[in-house]
Cobyrinate a,c-diamide synthase (Thermodesulfatator atlanticus), 484 residues
Amino acid sequence: MHKFTLPRLVISAQKGGAGKTLFALGLVAALKKKGHWVIPFKKGPDYIDAGWLSLAAGHPCYNLDPFFMSQETILSSFLGHASPEGISVIEGNRGLLDGVDSQGSCSTAQLARVLKAPVILVLDSTKVTRSLAAFVKGCQVIEKDLFFGGVILNQIVRLRHEKIITESIEKYTDLKVLGILPRLKNFSFPMRHLGLLPWQEHGEGEEVVEKLARVVEENVDLDAVERLAHEAVPLSGAPLRWPAVQPVVKIGVLRDEAFQFYYPENLMALESLGAELVYIDALRERTLPSGLHALYIGGGFPETQGEALADNLSLRQELREALEEGLPAYAECGGLMYLGRRIFWRGKSFDMVGVLPIDFAVHERPQGHGYVQATVIKPNPFYPVGTKLKGHEFHYSCPVNVKENAISLVLKLEKGHGFAQKLDGVVYRNIFGAYTHVHVLGQPLWAKALVEAAFKRKEGFKEDLREVVWRPESLMLGYCQTKI
């Protein structure tokens, strides 16, 4: 087993909303400006923060999640994307110690332990001084085997405020304060649904990232941060590799301001199994690309783009006709909403594709939020009955005016809310739509099923896609070599 020297850092905090995303974005952008190759990662099932990190780095951001993935898979995925020539920046979620139980399972601390990465703590310093030293010391006591590398103080107002906290932390712990984030005036980071506004909708995303880079450059010891990243110990393991194959089917992927939520690995897996991905702008393209064998419609906020989606009548009609004729489609959350009849939001109604006999009402509070554990209980185009799924959901919409005898709900949820009554997974013809999002490294069958459905759709296909193989030593995706 090989050893890899990979500069890396985990950015965490004492709680959600403490400023770790602002610091992570500023740090990534500042390191990039210095000429570093920065590879961003996001802990947890997050698309929006990951999108901003990708924008800041000019490089795809990859998700690492102990709930979806085994420790072996996390390590192999990280080794497959990180580089000794670059600096990997891994942004945590919530507080460092916060997981799914009192033991901190699936926490950022657990991820940092798997990756043996130095941890920088971002601390919200609002209305607090010496007490922050107790928090830092407590983290060191509870997580004795973590490599704590330093502290960033956020929301600093005055020099005296900074001085008291810095002296307290450096007196009671062995950690250094590496810098601060001052309370930013005339700076507003638009928020929506418990998090940041997606950069695709912001309009000035690059300007925001540049401003955060300047804040970090002016207030953080970047040289010390770089040294810390290079102090990370070597990692042993087998990198995950994605084989390059000749594409033999075409899968349409809706990707625009309305549909943004795609894990890079999900798209890479489809390509590694023989799919050519054809990206479709549902807001502007008036017709479907020719020769599609399946569709993948990810999540997003179709309600915010409802008028543009509704106005694109020709594309909606083509989609409905193709889906009624049996075109396979896998739709997640926002994609599920788009395939319904209408979306109701803030007193307005927007017509959607209409292939599913369901309307969707968007509320001001979450209707489902968190991890999902589900079992497939009925036949469907993608998963065998009995298949176990781990995923996540985050939706403010709920189904209304459902024509129940026209659809089938095929997922029974042990954890999560889903469509209704602990059920999810709407099936109609060759459509599978769910509020549940899946990651291919947690459910490799997902990619195989979608590509296989595309193969079966393609005229003249005679054989089944062979099994996806996840070898423990390489976690390499198998792929179809059938000649068509």
Observations:
- Residues 460-484 have pLDDT under 50 and may be disordered.
- The domain at 249-457 is CATH 3.40.50.880 (Rossmann fold).
- The chain has two domains: 3-236, 249-457.
